[in-house]
From TrEMBL:
InterPro entries: Fructo-/Ketosamine-3-kinase, Kinase-like_dom_sf
Name of the protein in its database record: Fructosamine kinase family protein
Entry superkingdom: Bacteria
Keyword vocabulary terms for this entry: Kinase, Transferase
Length: 264
């Protein structure tokens, strides 16, 4: 999910992303998320791009040079991502420390509020707002909305909750935000919040990523996921599918409808 146009800075050593129409705090929220994720790096967490400066409509980041992805780098990233998630969050749905209020995923508002249970947070913050908006603009049919609402009822009932504490997740981890460099994988453009680690894995699978199977296997081992974890991948994909239904059209709404029917 693109966050804005980018170009090299005047020195050639950094990368500037700009969005002249950015709402107040748009790039500051991104910087807060990057800083929060980076706190896990000394303990073996995933590397995040460095922030050099934040302006009203710009953010300047370190310039990264990509290299061909390798199995070893992918496996290292899967393990590191599990460490980042294990660094934890204050609550499910909570924003990074130092940031108050809602944030953004792509150009869509990403609500932030604290919940004790993952299921309720996922339903109220990551599923229902986008489903209702997609339905309003005709990108999700009435039957699809009802299917999503039935999944939300199950989420509220705790049917999909487990004993895992809030994870420190990237929140927008599609393949374009996972960059293979000579120093290993670096993640960019987060929509960071307290969530469930499998949400990051699900988005990687939905949109594809180099060496995905290696990332997943290393993560599952490091995070000690139960053997049936792939059965819930579609559930976690409802969030990005519905975000895209709002911003990219009804084909994503139809996909979300199909997925929701599996979990209603």
């Amino acid at each position: 999910m693109s966050r804005g146009d980018g170009y090299p800075d005047a020195t050639g050593g950094g990368f500037v992303k700009r969005r002249p129409d950015a709402p107040d705090g748009f790039f500051a929220a991104e910087a807060a998320g990057l800083a929060w994720l980076a706190e896990a790096e000394p303990n073996g967490g995933a590397r995040t791009v460095r922030v050099r400066a934040v302006g009203t409509g710009t953010i300047t980041l370190e310039r990264l040079r990509e290299v061909p992805p390798t199995a070893a780098a992918a496996e290292a990233f899967g393990t590191a991502l599990a460490v980042t998630h294990a660094a934890g969050a204050a609550a499910f749905g909570a924003p990074p420390p130092g940031w108050q209020g809602d944030a953004w995923i792509g150009r869509q508002v990403s609500p932030m509020r604290s919940f004790e249970a993952w299921g309720a947070s996922f339903a109220d913050l990551r599923v229902l707002p986008y489903a209702r908006r997609a339905a309003e603009i005709g990108h999700l049919g009435a039957d699809g909305l009802r299917a999503v609402e039935r999944v939300a009822d199950r989420l509220h009932a705790g049917d999909f909750d487990d004993d895992r504490p809030p994870a420190r997740i990237h929140g927008d981890l599609w393949g374009g935000n996972v960059l293979f460099t000579a120093d290993g994988v670096v993640v960019i453009d987060p929509a960071a919040h307290g969530g469930h680690g499998q949400t990051d894995l699900a988005m990687l699978e939905l949109f594809g990523a180099p060496q995905l199977a290696r990332i997943q296997a290393a993560y599952a081992e490091a995070a000690d996921l139960p053997a049936d974890w792939p059965e819930r991948t579609g559930l976690h994909q409802l969030h990005p599918l519905l975000v895209h239904a709002v911003s990219h059209g009804p084909s994503y709404g139809r996909h979300a409808d199909q997925v929701a029917r599996r979990y209603r």
